[in-house]
Every structure is written in structure tokens, then in C-alpha cells.
Description:
The protein is of the alpha/beta class.
Amino acid sequence: MAKIAVLGAAALDTIVKVDNFxxxxxxxxxxxxxxxxxxxxxxxxxxLKRLGLETSFLGKIGDDTEGSLIKEDFIKEGVxxxxxCVEKDSTSAQAFIAVNNSGERVIYxxxxxxxxxQEAEIDQVDFSDFAGLYIGEVLTNIGLKVIxxxxxxxxxxxxxxxxxxxxxxxxxxGYLVKNSDYLLLNLPExxxxxxxxxxEDAIQKLLNYGARNLVVTEGVLGSGFxxxxxxxxxxxxxxxxxxxxxxxxxxxxxFITGIYAGYKMKECLRLGNACAAFTVMKMGARTAMPRLCExxxxxx
Length: 300
């Protein structure tokens, strides 16, 4: 069973369900309030494990109650925490997420300790142990270090910068774009990273820049694959969305699992789409991510 190193952030999410998002100076009352271990990259570590791959999470937590909850959930899910650093006298990362009746969400990051920030933290990682590396949120110095370490062992690299790091543009994260085997973005991230508003122009910009295999998700429409040799789009499964939190993380987990299962690229996208559809039908991100038997049954 392939083992994947997953580098990025873990957090504790507070998810509030509301009828509608408030306007300025308006008050709304929550329908429910729940706390879940989360963080995009941490969700992917769990998602991959549920789908049958072994995973090891590379990131940080604080030495607080929230950090303990994050670590306990990793252990419960079977994610290796050998490289999960606990920083003394610090608070773990948290996020506040509001979800409306259409399943749309608004996310507020509350900050906290989450990312490797010392190159020595990468030096401790034995990359010979891994069949793949997923990079989510990463600081510049750590990104360069981990890319070079992974390349020593010819480890396949999947990179998904997310909205905050995509907004930094290619000047800041271009080395990761060029040196990754797969670049995974949603449509807003594609436009932010490329600096182009038109999808086709944005895709071509990244391919010209050096992206090898580009995967772009478009929510309820589906997902597309783009390279210099081929491109195609796979439509999404039609379901009623309850909460879109974690849909992208679930897609990524399914897509990567398909790669290691030896699927053709269209089937990798289809598996990712199925995982995302399964996830949006329930509240929460990680709590709604499927196990392999569930998503296979869902696909039919």
C-alpha cells in the first residue's frame, strides 16, 4: 500500500449552520454549531487514508486542547503523526466557517500554529519511506527545501496552493508549480495564480510557465485535466448539496487515490468528482469524506 507524505496545515473548525448569510449590521441566529478537526491538507491526509492509502502528516499544532483534539483524530483515523510537531506555549490553528442552506460557505481563519517554518523540520523527514508527496499550504523556504528533498528520491509531487498562496502569484510559488508532477486548483485559484480572468488564458499561462499536469475543479460543473498533450473535462455527479466544506479536499483525495490505483486520467477525475459529491451531501468536511467502499457504492 503506497504511503503519502502530506505537508500543510491542520486546524480545528467551528462550523455554524445558518439559513442565510447576514448583510452588513445584520444578525442571524445559528441553526447548529459544531467543532470538527479540519484544515485542508489535514483533511486530505484523512481522505487518502479512508480511501486505502497510508498517510503521514507533516505540520504543526500548539500544546493546547485544540491541538490535542487534532492529534487524537489523526490517530483515530490511522494517519501517522511521527512528523507532527507540537510547539510549546502556542495555540493551534482554528477556523470559523458559516454554511447557508444552499451549502455555500464563508471561512474566517482565526490564525494559530500550523505550518513547518524551520528547515530542520524537513531534515527530520525520511523521504525514502514515501511513494508520493502532497504539498498544500507551505512557506517559501520550506517549499523549496521539501521539493529538493523529494526530488532526491524521485518522489511524485502533488501541489495544491489554495486561495491564500495562489494569490501570491507565480513570482512566489512558481518553483513549486514547475517542479510538481500535478498542480491541483479550483477555478478561482487558477485565476489568482495565473493573473488571468479567462479560464483558457489562465490554463495556457500555467502550462507555458512549466506546469506539467494541471487539474482544475469547477464545483457543480465537474473537473478538467490539462497538459501540453491533452485536455478533457468530466462532469460532476448531480446531488443536493448540504455543505460544500471539504469538497475540494475530498476531490483531491479521490484523484490521488486513482493515480496510485493505476486509473486512466478520466477515471481519476471521476473518482475525485464522486468523492466530492459524496462529501457535500453531509455537514462537515472530514466527517463527510467517504471510505473506498462507500464511494464505489455511490458510483455504482
